């Protein structure tokens, strides 16, 4: 099994955050000059830029976790692939002219890997919960 999904996610996160620095550098500098703490306030642009950067950091952390699992030869939970795919579809629907398209390859690859292995861990827990709900 090739290890590329975690690195792909980290690469997209770096591009995402780099884009924020280039395009919204003025907003980020203004936040830094004001001391960072409580600088978003009720300014929608500053809030959007803060979320943009925070999302990049979260995607990088997710990529680190996936890369670590890949390196250890451990399965990545199927739910992660499903959540990433759902987020990607929603992002593309809301913002077709965006980088969300870059998340399709890892989302699909995670789901394909999950299909090719027996269910375990969190997947078994979710299946057990689904069976319990069906029995009720």
Tell me what the structure shows:
The chain has 6 helices and no strands. It is mainly alpha-helical and 136 residues long. The longest helix has 29 residues, at 44-72. The model has no long low-confidence stretch (mean pLDDT 90). The protein is elongated, with a radius of gyration of 18 Å. It has 2 domains: 1-74; 75-136, no CATH class.
Describe the sheet with the most strands: none
Task: Return the average pLDDT rounded to an integer.
Answer: 90
Distance between the first and last residues' Cα:
40 Å
Topology pattern, helix = H, strand = E: HHHHHH
Flag low-confidence runs: none
- Helical content band: over 70%
- Backbone CA Rg: 18 Å
Strand composition percent = under 5%
Count the domains: 2
Structural class determined from secondary elements: mainly alpha
Question: What best-fitting shape do the alpha-carbon axes yield?
Answer: elongated
**Number of helical segments with 4 or more residues:** 6
Q: Please give the number of β-strands.
A: 0
Structural topology:
Blueprint (H helix, E strand, L loop, with lengths): L4 H19 L1 H9 L10 H29 L5 H17 L9 H12 L6 H14 L1
Helix pairs in contact: 1-3, 1-5, 4-5
List keywords for this structure.
elongated; transmembrane helix; DUF6463 family protein; single chain; DUF6463; about 140 residues; about 0% strand; 6 helices; mainly alpha
